């Protein structure tokens, strides 16, 4: 493609709306434009990347036995009501009515549609297993769409659904997908990590996420350098260190006056004891009921673990008015002693002796509090976020943390949707059985953004060769010099003939502008035709991720490029 | 692909909901399933056909200089208001609101989005021409979705938009697209015709439709066998025959009692004079005003021509109550003489002498009425549908009619949208100029259905090779016979190695079932491995559109298949 014909409107300024680097670069490099909050038009360069990602995904899905279909975006309200998710989904689902006042959703996911489809077509155990997938727009009405393609309202997903006879069949399908996903991210050329994940609202009992590593990632991964353990911090188990529980040294509980001391830091300063010897008490409303959660002052609550322990649908922090009415004290003076709401205690709190906590009376705290003696929690469970330095639940070594972007997620669903939508097959004994399902998603547009988030430098994007919009860009330094133009045209045609995807920058721009654009849009290989090298009948070849400039004989350039593409 | 693994749930019964053959066959052959009225899931076989159509379209668009992008389906209300089409589009547009109560449309077309995009990125005459296209779902909330993919509510379109400096540039872009469209339908292997078309609500001043010929087609094409003229009946001009106007023989107008005579046929029987000597008077409401239309009793009104002549936005037939109130007579007794509403007369009525028409008094008619003498119309214009036997407006020979399915439509838009959305470029003199636009659509999913509508027989679909889901199906007659299975497997692997798309029917079904399915799903080439031919080391090769069965030496089958694919 000649650059003069190619629609890639680059920008010199960093758009003010863009907070993260992928968002900035995709706008600046002319890959996309916003049409409304969280909704984008993909320009030609971005679409080429998307198609390459899609093709790699498609090939691996097909190889794993998946069959591609295409389901509707507009999905009838009835089947969402049948599964119970019409009301559960809340404001995140775009809804509309047709001219006959029938309700529809813009599909955020397709379990309802595909389970209904499969129910109609699968009758016998002979029809299973079945792996069906699609690549298609999905919709989520985010409160605050942001970060460009990372958290959009219209985005492209691959979603595969597996249908099996039983849990053993599901295991096989799940492993196939796990393997296929690894093959995909290997081929995409991205640094990634597979982590154990929480299954969330979608249900099910085993789940892994595929994380592209990037400092700006929204997800925190805890992992072990000794063994293979890696998990989303939302899921990662916090074990207790192997050291023995402390020797009993319980002292008498004392009520102390703590005027104006509300935060853990206040109390650290006031009492002179570290945050790890304080207790913080958080108040939540779980399905309408007020509950208290206690954990060490230096720890973070993990709401997903709490939700799983509470087995509730709806969970949010209580407001101070509600709390004060029930507990007669405000935030900052709450504590488990004498509290008249159920207490959920993090595991670690059991190990603490003589800790400090609120006295449920404004401006008073207790010290030397001890669990069991001074109060009894409803449940003691793992409720906090894992942190670097925690011990690996598998091998006991210290854990590390790293940030990542969730680009893929695989789930075992079991019979959640087949039960709700009555999808059964007849087994060999003539008995009806629920179909056992799994679902497997990849964010296609998010993977594009994640690639940019991981692969960039101060000058722009650095596309991995497998998904670069073009593999090569040829820049004649001076477009007015016939010999340069001729040499550039020669290489352009030869490379095209070899099936290489190449841009010839034939624009009447200064060389500096062309180099800047080439770096910004991130083409992996740059061939420069300049006066000096041309005199020696050579071209300059440079890799986008490398500072080195190779001088290559004109006759060898094509082969050099082909070899580089092959070997990367 | 092995048939045992392939998801193509065929049906023996014709689904009662399906009125036309493509709808019936696509359901029966397991190509698609309905999820709600006018909304379908494409199963693996259909998706393969769609992808092939898309690829042919994409290749020709790229060849013509088009650049592929991907625009959003959810489009903000503001830009539709800016173009004036938010209200104009009426009930056919799906609308929704997001959680912040902002309005969106599900895009029925993308002029607003792309004009806004181009306005933001195109600044100079040097940036034009620009041809951008996408392949993407479109939405139309049909009152009565029907005919399967022919008139769906969610469907797949290719839409290209051209942006040029001036009308001359638009001519060039338009011709490129015209040529590309012909290349596409040639490659698809369908019988089609290019016809002149009305530009309709989308605006503009030149327009062609690409029609796949089929008896069930909703569109009527009039065409000339002598010259190249062909037009949609909605658009086709009706010339007057070259014969001289009749000699003046006007007789005295007479009022006659016609009790109970209301239709043209009634009057033919009652007066003994043919329908071509009667006048029918139709009453319409155009933008709120009552108007009368008169044309020969044997002709059909063309509402599109009428709308164009009236230059109105809104046109519908008046109800009898409205008419009676204004004209003091009911339908069947109306006529132009003494009528107190504006009269729009079809061209032909000027040639008539001494005709019969209603007297604007129930149960009375006039005879020997003459235009000019007895009444004066507001406008005399071409207002009727062309018919077989009319004269060609180009060469004067008689016209023929044939039915077709509109699958492509190209328009010159001019500056309609660039004016509304203020999309300009700066010309060489530093002056701002409106960008001149064209738009060019192809119904991808509709083309799939049109192909089936045109290519089928009593046994099923007959896919053209270029878009068949698979090119070859291999059927071992008896799956229990090792030698047949072995020979079938051998051919299967050899063909796959040659890049042929092949199904091996390895199912444990009777041969009859396999043959029936192969015919139903319409695979172009069938290779049968039967006991008799196998004894001679031969296979039977049959084309789906041909009764002949060829016996081909086993060693020659692959080459025979490759040759057939190449030559068709």
From TrEMBL, chains A, B:
GO cellular component, one term: cytosol
Signal peptide boundaries: none
Chief localization: cytoplasm
HAMAP family in UniProt: Pro_tRNA_synth_type1
Protein purpose: Catalyzes the attachment of proline to tRNA(Pro) in a two-step reaction: proline is first activated by ATP to form Pro-AMP and then transferred to the acceptor end of tRNA(Pro). As ProRS can inadvertently accommodate and process non-cognate amino acids such as alanine and cysteine, to avoid such errors it has two additional distinct editing activities against alanine. One activity is designated as 'pretransfer' editing and involves the tRNA(Pro)-independent hydrolysis of activated Ala-AMP.
Name of this chain's protein: Proline--tRNA ligase
Gene3D superfamilies xref list: Anticodon-binding domain, Bira Bifunctional Protein, Domain 2, YbaK/aminoacyl-tRNA synthetase-associated domain
Highest rank taxon of the organism: Bacteria
Reactions catalysed according to its record: tRNA(Pro) + L-proline + ATP = L-prolyl-tRNA(Pro) + AMP + diphosphate
Protein family (similarity comment): Belongs to the class-II aminoacyl-tRNA synthetase family. ProS type 1 subfamily.
Record-linked InterPro entries: aa-tRNA-synt_IIb, aa-tRNA-synth_II, aa-tRNA-synth_II/BPL/LPL, Anticodon-bd, Anticodon-bd_dom_sf, Pro-tRNA-ligase_IIa, Pro-tRNA-synth_IIa_bac-type, Pro-tRNA-Synthase_IIa_type1
One Pfam family in the UniProt entry: HGTP_anticodon
Molecular-function annotations in GO: aminoacyl-tRNA deacylase activity; ATP binding; catalytic activity, acting on a protein; proline-tRNA ligase activity; transferase activity
Subcellular location: Cytoplasm
Domain writeup: Consists of three domains: the N-terminal catalytic domain, the editing domain and the C-terminal anticodon-binding domain.
């Amino acid at each position: 493609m000649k650059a003069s014909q190619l629609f890639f409107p680059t920008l010199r300024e960093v758009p003010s709306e863009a907070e993260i680097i992928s968002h900035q670069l995709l706008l600046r490099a002319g890959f996309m434009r916003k049409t409304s909050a969280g909704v984008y038009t993909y320009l030609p360069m971005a679409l080429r990347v998307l198609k390459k990602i899609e093709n790699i995904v498609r090939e691996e899905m097909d190889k794993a036995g998946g069959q591609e279909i295409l389901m509707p975006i507009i999905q009838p309200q009835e089947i969402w009501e049948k599964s119970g998710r019409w009301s559960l989904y809340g404001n995140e689902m775009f809804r509309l009515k047709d001219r006959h006042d029938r309700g529809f959703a813009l599909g955020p996911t397709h379990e309802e549609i595909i389970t209904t489809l499969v129910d109609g077509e699968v009758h016998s155990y002979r029809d299973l297993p079945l792996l069906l997938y699609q690549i298609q727009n999905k919709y989520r009405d985010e409160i605050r769409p942001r970060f460009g393609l990372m958290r959009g309202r219209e985005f492209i997903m691959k979603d595969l659904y597996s249908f099996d006879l039983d849990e053993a069949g599901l295991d096989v399908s799940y492993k196939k997908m796990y393997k296929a996903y690894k093959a995909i991210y290997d081929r995409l050329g991205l640094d990634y990590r597979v982590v154990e994940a929480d299954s969330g609202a979608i249900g099910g009992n085993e789940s892994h996420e595929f994380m592209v590593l990037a400092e700006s990632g929204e997800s925190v991964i805890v992992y072990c350098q000794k063994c293979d353990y890696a998990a989303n911090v939302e899921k990662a188990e916090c074990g207790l260190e192997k050291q023995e529980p402390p020797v009993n040294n319980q002292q008498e509980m004392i009520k102390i006056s703590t005027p104006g001391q509300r935060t853990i830091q206040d109390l650290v300063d006031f009492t002179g004891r570290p945050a790890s010897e304080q207790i913080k008490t958080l108040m939540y409303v779980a399905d309408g009921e007020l509950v208290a959660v206690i954990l060490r002052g230096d720890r973070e609550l993990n709401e997903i673990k709490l939700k799983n322990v509470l087995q509730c649908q709806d969970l949010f922090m209580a407001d101070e008015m509600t709390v004060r009415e029930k507990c007669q004290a405000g935030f900052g003076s709450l504590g488990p002693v004498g509290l008249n709401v159920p207490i959920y205690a993090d595991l670690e709190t059991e190990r603490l002796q003589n800790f400090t906590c609120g006295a449920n009376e404004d401006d008073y705290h207790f010290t030397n509090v001890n669990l069991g003696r001074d109060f009894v929690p409803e449940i003691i469970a793992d409720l906090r976020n894992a942190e670097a330095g925690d011990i690996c639940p598998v091998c006991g070594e210290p854990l590390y943390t790293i940030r990542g972007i969730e680009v893929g997620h695989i789930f075992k669903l079991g019979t959640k949707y087949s039960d709700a939508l009555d999808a059964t097959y007849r087994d060999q004994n003539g008995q009806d059985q629920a179909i056992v399902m799994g679902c497997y998603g990849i964010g296609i547009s998010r993977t594009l953004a994640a690639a940019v988030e991981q692969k960039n430098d101060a000058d722009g994007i650095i596309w991995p060769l497998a998904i670069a919009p073009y593999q090569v860009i040829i820049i004649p330094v001076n477009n007015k010099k016939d010999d340069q133009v001729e040499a550039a045209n020669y290489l352009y045609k030869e490379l095209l003939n070899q099936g290489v995807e190449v841009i010839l920058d034939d624009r009447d721009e200064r060389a500096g502008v062309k180099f800047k654009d080439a770096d910004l849009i991130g083409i992996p290989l740059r061939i420069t035709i300049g006066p000096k090298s041309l005199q020696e009948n050579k071209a300059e070849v440079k890799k986008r991720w490398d500072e080195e400039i190779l001088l290559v004989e004109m006759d060898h350039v094509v082969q050099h490029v082909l070899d580089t593409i092959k070997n990367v």
